[in-house]
Specification:
Blueprint lengths: L1 H4 L2 H6 L3 H14 L8 H14 L1 H27 L5 E13 L4 E7 L2 E7 L7 E10 L12 H6 L3 E15 L5 H13 L4 H10 L7 H9 L10 H15 L6 H18 L4 H19 L5 H15 L7 H15 L1 H4 L4 H23 L2 E3 L2 H25 L4 H19 L5 E3 L5 H20 L4 H15 L9 E4 L8 E4 L6 E4 L8 H8 L4 E2 L1 E4 L4 H4 L2 H7 L1 E2 L1 E5 L14 E5 L4 E4 L2 E7 L13 E6 L2 E5 L5 H4 L11 E3 L11 H7 L9 E4 L12 H6 L3 E4 H4 L2 E4 L2 E3 L2
Parallel strand pairs: 3-5, 10-12, 11-13, 12-14, 14-15, 19-20, 20-21, 21-22
Antiparallel strand pairs: 1-2, 1-4, 2-3, 4-5, 6-7, 8-9, 8-23, 9-10, 16-17, 17-18, 18-19, 23-24
């Protein structure tokens, strides 16, 4: 902190009241439960400001007050609808998003919104009589996972409607109908696969982009080029001004025409926040020049942010808002670092700065960062500026040249897919605390300042590398022994994790096609799995095995002797072992004993591995998907069981009363815990009510309690 105090950047920022007010608003909104701790420092700060400049003091108080009242009012309105379970009334269609086999429709009802899924598209602005049950969106299923509830909440969406009846009443105006009309026009006019590229680059609609191309764009770190931003809008501004300068118009008239055109584009793009930022920045700069306010670029971007938060403080939670303003603000603040007479060197520094500034935000979405993106941006930005974007704009004006756009699209797709396969510089960054992020930004700020002052930056380069290294290897600093029973969409996966990354064991991998398990392991900083145990060959237990092998270093894989499916998924370079009754496994003082299968039951579920394990001082029984028939044959010999993994996701075909009595789970006992991993998208309504009734001890169900963690022999769940 002492070093930061003497940096040029700190001295430039410390007197900027706009930055300070945004920081205060952000802390108050995001850390609502701890906001009271800031009241005294805030009062002291405001007193100091009042003594210096009463007008600034009044402005700050007014801004903070308006934002907080706006935010609190929105929360109160949402809470009013928090217990809404059924809706019967009028609703207006606000947005429509095409899914694979249906349409996601956003309805506005009174002061809030709900979403629903329908096989047929509706009319934007249409008023419908609507009836149906409302379910609440799910929160994150594991720490660091995607929180759908929060995602919808900050779009003012209070629930998901299961449509029972839907009747069209009449049509009304909707500002989003302009974007929808343009979308439909594109769909009818353009028939090649270039359609997705044209829509993404001109109106910000990426729904028509091929999934494979979208994944490639994301993996090489050029997703920001497919977000309508300053690059796109500035090309439009330059094009308009180029044409207007050929007309006998005064500068004022030219600016008015540009502003009107940009606002039309804002409507066409569907009110994208990134477009608003650029348009509003253009207007603010014109006002600043005309009235000689002498506001700096930092002042202008901060006024821009404050205006957005005054209109809708919920934007502070949206990644599009955060990334748009974070990168733009960072580049403006660090402008002296980016500036260079050598354009190539300036571009490299710009690309580096954008990646480093946005790194903590990006990894909260996707842990994988491809540092070759610094080089890719040098290639793609000129290609986008001078070829891809202009050809898309020209194709809109002259649809007959779509064939040219198509061949350029094919070249772009081929090149991007090739780069996406080069993963040598892709690094995963797990979830870390906010304090670690603050240290990261502190060192980055000082390092940039050293470059600006042309001082020796080597110490801080090394410090930054050390921080990134610690971040990438954060699992080495984990002090806890933990067992995670994961809440997956379908299937089961259990992670056993020993302190300081000394041993990682995964039992089952969940259903194929759901990458939750990959994201979870990466968010925890796990790169190596010392052992994978597959209970049996059903896809909801071994479905993600091949993807895990591709993404992590796997040392050993164990599977059942009569499992004929899993063995085909294991590559030759990985040690693999078939297990049957009485086999044992020991690793890092964690012991497993195989209690079944004793024979081939001619049934994959009954051939499941049943494991009796001593893990961190507790006795676990993992039962796979065995039925009651196999439960009765288990050689338990009165062995103590502290934690039972309920068989077959809680199906009524398992977990008999006799079995529960045999392991002491037939009577209330707070020291014995049963865990049912049923999959929050399972279609069989697991667990069965009879199974739940039979278990008399404490029962945790993943679809209810989310991921269940046993740490220091205590249960933690969301």
């Amino acid at each position: 902190m002492r070093k930061l105090k003497y940096t040029l950047l700190f001295n430039e920022l410390k007197g900027n009241y706009f930055i300070i007010v945004i920081t205060l608003i952000t802390i108050f909104i995001i850390n609502k439960t701890k906001a009271f701790l800031l009241i005294i420092p805030l009062i002291i700060y405001l007193v100091i400001i009042f003594k210096k400049n009463s007008k600034v003091f009044i402005s700050l108080v007014v801004i903070i007050t308006i934002v907080m009242i706006n935010f609190s009012t929105r929360i109160i309105i949402q809470n009013k609808y928090a217990n809404l379970n059924y809706y019967d009334g009028i609703a207006k269609v606000e947005k429509i998003k095409k899914q694979e086999s249906s349409y996601q429709i956003t309805f506005k009802i009174k002061n809030v919104k709900i979403i629903a899924y329908n096989k047929e598209s509706l009319k934007i602005g249409g008023i419908y009589n609507l009836k149906g049950q409302i379910t609440k969106p799910s929160s994150s299923h594991f720490e660091g996972g995607f929180d759908y509830e929060a995602y919808l909440k900050y779009q003012n969406i209070v629930g998901i409607l299961q449509i029972e009846t839907l009747e069209y009443d009449h049509q009304s105006f909707s500002i989003y109908s302009i974007n929808n009309y343009i979308n439909n026009y594109f769909d009818k006019t353009y028939k090649s696969k270039a359609l997705g590229m044209i829509k993404a680059l001109t109106i910000g609609n990426k729904e028509s982009l091929e999934d494979s191309l979208s994944d490639s764009i994301s993996s090489i770190g050029i997703s920001h080029l497919f977000v309508i931003s300053g690059l796109h809008v500035n090309i439009i501004i330059m094009g308009i001004l180029f044409l207007l300068k050929k007309l006998p118009l005064k500068e004022k008239a030219q600016n008015i025409i540009v502003i009107i055109t940009l606002f039309i584009y804002y409507l066409v793009s569907g009110l994208l926040i990134s477009v608003f930022r650029v348009i509003y920045s253009f207007i603010l700069s014109l006002i600043n020049q005309k009235y000689h306010y002498n506001l700096s670029s930092i002042d202008l971007i901060m006024i821009n942010i404050i205006t957005i938060l005054l209109i809708n403080p919920f934007y502070i939670y949206q990644y599009s808002f955060i990334l748009t303003y974070l990168i733009a603000s960072g580049i403006i603040i660090c402008n002296k670092f980016v500036t260079s007479k050598n354009k190539l060197w300036a571009s490299i520094k710009m690309s580096f700065l954008a990646i480093m500034i946005s790194l903590p935000v990006i990894v909260s979405i996707n842990p994988d960062i491809n540092f070759l993106a610094i080089i890719y941006n040098l290639l793609y930005i000129p290609f986008m500026t001078y070829i891809l974007l202009p050809i898309c704009i020209i194709t809109i004006i002259i649809p007959k040249i779509e064939i040219i756009a198509y061949y350029i699209y094919l070249g772009f797709k081929t090149l991007t897919s090739f780069f996406a396969r080069l993963s040598i510089f892709t690094i995963s960054f797990p979830k870390v605390s906010i304090y670690f992020i603050l240290i990261y930004y502190l060192v980055l700020l000082i390092l940039i300042d050293k470059f600006i002052k042309k001082q020796k930056p080597f110490k801080y380069i090394i410090a930054l590398i050390i921080i990134l290294g610690c971040w990438n290897n954060i699992a080495l600093f984990n002090i806890h022994n933990e067992v995670y029973f994961l809440d997956l969409p379908k299937g089961e996966a259990t992670l056993i994790r020993k302190h300081f990354n000394t041993c990682n064991i995964l039992i089952d991998t969940g259903e194929n096609g759901y990458d939750d398990i990959l994201i979870f392991l990466k968010k925890k900083g796990i790169k190596r799995l010392d052992m994978i145990i597959i209970s049996h060959g059903d896809s909801d237990h071994n479905g993600m095995l091949e993807e895990i092998i591709d993404n992590f270093k796997v040392k050993n894989i164990y599977y059942g002797k009569y499992d004929k499916v899993t063995c085909t998924k294991i590559p030759p370079h990985i040690n693999s072992f078939a297990l049957a009754i009485n086999n044992t496994i020991s690793i890092a003082k964690i012991d497993f004993k195989v209690l079944s299968p004793a024979k081939d039951y001619q049934n994959p579920n009954d051939n499941s591995l049943v494991l009796y394990a001593n893990i961190f001082g507790l006795k676990y029984l993992f039962t796979g998907d065995i039925s009651k028939k196999v439960e009765e044959t288990l050689p338990l010999n009165n062995q103590m069981v502290d934690i039972l993994k309920v068989a077959h996701h809680g199906s009524k075909t398992s977990t008999s009363e006799k079995f529960l009595k045999n392991i002491g789970f037939d009577k209330p006992n707070t020291n014995k815990i049963a865990i049912c991993m049923n999959g929050y998208r399972n279609q069989f309504s697991f667990p069965d009510s009879l199974t739940v009734a039979n278990i008399k001890t404490t029962l945790y169900i993943t679809s209810t309690h989310k991921t269940i963690i046993i740490r220091k022999n205590k249960i933690y769940y969301k």
